[in-house]
């Protein structure tokens, strides 16, 4: 039987709209005490590995968790502004993919800093920083996508004026490998919280009550997924 279901579902999107921005902001604030550029970030990892690991992990988790929120927002925009929804949604999603790619490089460089020292890691990063790759040609999406999506959300009345401006401030967030926190980083992640958290709470409250079957399946799935996550970490 056909339904009006839209991937990934209202509750999943609602959780994404709340947790994604919060985790991004948390990661941004955790590394705010250290200088912005990559040599300082690597030295901070060498000196404060626990704090910096938490900061970069929170930021990465928030970045990945945002994708259901962006799909849901683009879907809502697309009901009246299909072209804007497509361009804005695709640009932002590609930008999220690129930040995830950067996070992999961050992870490798920071492991070098903890195992071989910040100086060794700095030399490796500085020698390879300008090496071209696929995402070198798509970096514009990281910033430009948020402006397009924010304009689309305002034009489609999917978000209010203040929320649309908040969404647009994510375009201020610096991009690239091993980037720390600047004032624009805090403005951007706070703006994202302003844009998406109220929408996420509203979507969650408006969601229908889950069926008993859904609750049972979820209760079984959570520990199974936890076990699979642990097994995955073993190699």
Structure description:
Keywords: Membrane, Transmembrane, Transmembrane helix. The protein is mainly alpha-helical. It has one domain. Helix 1 packs antiparallel against helix 8 and helix 6 runs antiparallel to helix 7. It is globular. The protein starts with 9 loop residues before the first helix and ends with a helix. The mean pLDDT is 93.
Task: Briefly say what this structure is.
75% of the residues lie in helices and 0% in strands. With 235 residues, the chain is mostly helical.
Helix content: over 70%
Estimate what percentage of residues fall within beta strands.
under 5%
Sketch the major β-sheet. Answer: none
**Average residue-wise pLDDT:** 93
Number of domains: 1
Q: What would the principal axes of the Cα set say about the shape?
A: globular
Number of helices: 9
Radius of gyration: 19 Å
- String of helices and strands: HHHHHHHHH
- The number of distinct β-strands equals 0
Query: What separation lies between the terminal Cα atoms?
Result: 41 Å
Which structural class fits the helix and strand makeup?
Answer: mainly alpha
């Amino acid at each position: 039987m056909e339904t009006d279901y839209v991937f990934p579902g209202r509750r999943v999107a609602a959780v994404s709209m709340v947790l994604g921005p919060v985790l991004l902001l948390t990661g941004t604030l955790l590394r705010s005490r250290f200088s912005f550029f990559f040599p300082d970030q690597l030295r901070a990892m060498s000196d404060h590995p626990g704090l910096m690991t938490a900061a970069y992990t929170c930021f990465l988790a928030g970045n990945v968790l945002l994708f259901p929120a962006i799909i849901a927002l683009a879907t809502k925009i697309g009901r009246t502004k299909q072209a804007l929804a497509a361009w804005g949604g695709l640009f932002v999603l590609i930008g999220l993919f690129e930040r995830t790619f950067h996070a992999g490089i961050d992870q490798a460089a920071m492991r070098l800093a903890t195992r071989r020292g910040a100086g060794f890691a700095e030399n490796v990063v500085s020698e390879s920083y300008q090496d071209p790759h696929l995402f070198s040609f798509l970096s514009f999406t990281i910033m430009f996508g948020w402006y397009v999506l924010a304009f689309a959300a305002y034009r489609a009345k999917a978000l209010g004026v203040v929320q649309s401006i908040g969404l647009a401030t994510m375009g201020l967030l610096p991009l690239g490998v091993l980037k720390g926190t600047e004032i624009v980083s805090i403005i951007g992640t706070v703006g994202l919280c302003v844009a998406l958290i109220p929408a996420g709470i509203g979507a969650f409250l408006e969601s229908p009550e889950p069926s008993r079957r859904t609750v049972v399946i979820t209760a079984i799935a959570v520990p199974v997924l936890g076990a699979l996550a642990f097994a995955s970490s073993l190699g």
